[in-house]
Specification:
Layout lengths: L13 H11 L2 H11 L3 H8 L6 H5 L7 H9 L3 H4 L2 H11 L7 E3 L10 H4 L6 H17 E4 L1 H5 L13 E2 L12 H11 L3 H18 L19 H11 L2 H23 L6 E4 L2 E4 L13 H8 L3 H13 L17 H4 L10 E2 L1 H23 L20 H21 E2 L4 E2 L2 E2 L11 H6 L14 H5 L5 H12 L4 E2 L2 E2 L14 E2 L1 H14 L1 H26 L6 E2 L19 H14 L10
Antiparallel strand pairs: 1-2, 2-3, 4-5, 6-9, 7-8, 10-11, 12-13
Length: about 600
């Protein structure tokens, strides 16, 4: 929480509010709120007493009084009262408001009656047309604005104030999340809600301007880490929906901000960059060595006070895959992995992940084009996600620098991430005990055990999506995917190992389906397009069946039990649900002419 925070909320105008927030949301305000929500005796007492079924509940509760007053009142409690759950609950009810008290519904104006892609005839099945209309109607239920008080007195809130409306995931998630937002943006754009999508992305750009990066989510307790860096892909998606005048006004500022985010991931300060021979590659690395406030007692029970374990748990959360056998050396093995898995053995900082590095390759390729477009005053060529290489003939200094970085990362993918014997990409594990510094390429290769590790979705979709596959690699990866054991009746399972964690088998997740299907469509030739269409049918069909059975869209789904929501993990399965809705709407646009709703049988 050493970052210089500033910004974001609603009325009178976004520009006026942004200035107001920059003035109010100084680092001192964050430190005042953090004394309640991120550390200290009050947080420890309430969370370890487990006053609420969900640890996140407490740290989402706004303060009724300034933090110094509340902490002084807590200090005046006797040790007996601090140890009494009933007395603690009385104290919390007296000094805190319920979660959601800082949010207001957002009132839509000019709301389209139905998604415009239906009028364009992109969905053939009438039942799926009704499904699309139902998903379209869910957006208002997930849209919120922060109340003006959040910007005026930010020290009383864990929520970060926002200048533009937010689209929340749903359920316990009362704030925006970084990588969720890409699929929400796709869904909003499919529904003709470009202004709402642009505002959502602008909130994230504002985060970068204020903090130097996009936090995991829109709360101060998420300022110790980021999430998969997909903001550049969101900017490109929104830019395509703007007219030329709006693009010329918005894009230069967005590109300048994206350069700051890239520096966050590539610099030495935060520990994300790792030198391997001639390459600079990336890992997840959270700046935290205590229980995560929103998962306090779970982390406390897992780590038992070990600061290294706390950091690793937060670093796994930065990956978005919290939690999974993928991040453990023994638990990720094909033979005996499930039995050997222990959450406290997670080591995300010891991995160069395929997906993170694929996302950054796409970032570099896309930024080369965006920088050239800004420098020359032309519209960018649409290519985010799936461009095999930077466009030829780019001449601006920023475009040239990003082109060089992309070419180096692509070379690293061929030499380090691609496993010819397996026919797929795989995470690169660093030498045991790696604590920073440069590594020799051969040193990393000598320790490679990818052949012993169970496959997971990140071995396939991200590299295909980013355009990193040659035709030979694409063909080999499709064959490897089909024999991987990941593909089920309801889509692609996250891993081939069932540990009970939510980012393991049998769960399938919306972003992983989206990356895989898009990647197969773009880079897999005819076999890839055929498999993409098959997986789109499995996924959309399963989501539709679950919606018909329960009336809800789920955060995750079972890849093996068709039409069932997912399970496992550190909290109860959630419904709503932002990225699930957006992912299905995107697939209805791209594959709707050939998709059919499953029958009850």
């Amino acid at each position: 929480l050493k970052h210089n925070l500033t910004r974001t909320a609603h009325p009178p105008t976004c520009a006026d509010l942004s200035l107001h927030i920059r003035t109010k949301m100084a680092s001192s305000s964050i430190e005042r709120a953090a004394a309640v929500y991120c550390r200290g005796a009050l947080l420890d007492a309430v969370q370890r007493a487990r006053l609420f079924d969900d640890a996140k509940h407490f740290v989402d509760m706004p303060l009724r009084r300034d933090p110094e007053e509340v902490l002084k009142a807590f200090d005046e409690l006797s040790s007996e009262d601090r140890a009494d759950p009933l007395k603690l609950r009385e104290f919390v009810d007296l000094h805190f408001e319920p979660p959601d008290a800082e949010l207001d519904p957002y009132v839509f104006y000019g709301w389209p009656d139905e998604p415009p892609f239906l009028a364009a005839g992109l969905v053939a099945d009438p039942a799926l047309c009704d499904f699309a209309r139902a998903l379209h109607r869910l957006w208002p239920t997930l849209c919120r604005v922060t109340k003006p008080a959040v910007a005026a007195t930010p020290w009383r809130y864990s929520a970060l104030p926002r200048a533009h409306p937010m689209v929340l995931p749903g359920g316990r998630f009362r704030e925006t999340y970084y990588w969720d937002s890409l699929w929400i943006v796709h869904g909003l754009l499919a529904c003709g809600l470009a202004d709402l999508a642009k505002g959502l992305v602008q909130n994230l750009l504002d985060d970068v301007d204020h903090f130097g990066f996009v936090p995991n989510g829109g709360r101060i307790y998420y300022l110790n880490r980021s999430q998969p860096p997909l903001l550049c892909a969101m900017v490109t998606a929104v830019e395509r929906a703007l007219d030329e005048a709006a693009s010329k006004e918005w894009l230069p500022k967005a590109v300048a901000t994206l350069k700051k985010e890239y520096a966050y991931w590539m610099g030495d300060e935060h520990g994300h960059a790792v030198r391997v021979g001639e390459f600079t590659l990336n890992r997840y690395s959270a700046n935290w060595d205590a229980p995560r406030p929103e998962s306090y007692w779970q982390d406390f029970d897992t780590a038992a006070g070990d600061a290294k374990v706390y950091r690793e748990l937060a670093s796994v959360a930065e990956s978005g895959w919290d939690f999974s056998s993928r991040w453990t050396r023994a638990g990720g093995l094909a033979e005996g992995g499930a039995e050997a898995f222990r959450l406290k053995d997670s080591q995300a900082t010891q991995v160069l992940p395929t997906d993170l590095n694929a996302f950054l390759y796409d970032f570099e390729v896309t930024m080369a084009e965006l920088c050239e477009a800004v420098a020359t005053g032309r519209r960018p060529i649409a290519q985010a996600g799936g461009a095999s290489a930077p466009a030829e003939g780019l001449s601006g200094p920023s475009a040239v620098a990003f082109t060089k970085a992309a070419k180096q990362r692509r070379l690293a993918f061929d030499r380090l991430f691609w496993r010819p014997a397996l026919g797929r990409w795989a995470d690169v594990w660093l030498p045991e005990g790696f604590c920073g510094g440069a590594l020799d390429e051969q040193q990393v290769l000598d320790g490679d055990d990818a052949g012993r590790r169970a496959p997971n979705c990140a071995d396939f979709g991200p590299a295909l999506w980013a355009g990193l596959a040659t035709s030979e690699q694409a063909a080999a990866s499709i064959a490897a995917l089909q024999r991987s054991g990941l593909l089920g009746v309801g889509g692609a399972a996250t891993t081939a190992t069932n540990t009970g964690e939510q980012w393991d088998a049998p769960n399938g997740w919306p972003p992983l389906q989206g990356l895989l299907i898009e990647g197969l469509d773009r880079c897999g030739g005819e076999p890839g397009r055929t498999l993409a269409a098959d997986l789109a049918q499995r996924w959309v069909g399963g989501c539709y069946a679950a919606w018909r059975a329960t009336g809800f869209m789920h955060e995750k789904y079972s890849a093996t039990d068709f039409g069932s929501g997912g399970a496992g993990g550190e909290y109860e399965p959630q419904v709503g649900f932002g990225w699930s809705n957006g992912g299905v709407l995107q697939l209805l646009v791209t594959h709707g002419k050939h998709l059919v709703a499953p029958t009850k049988d």
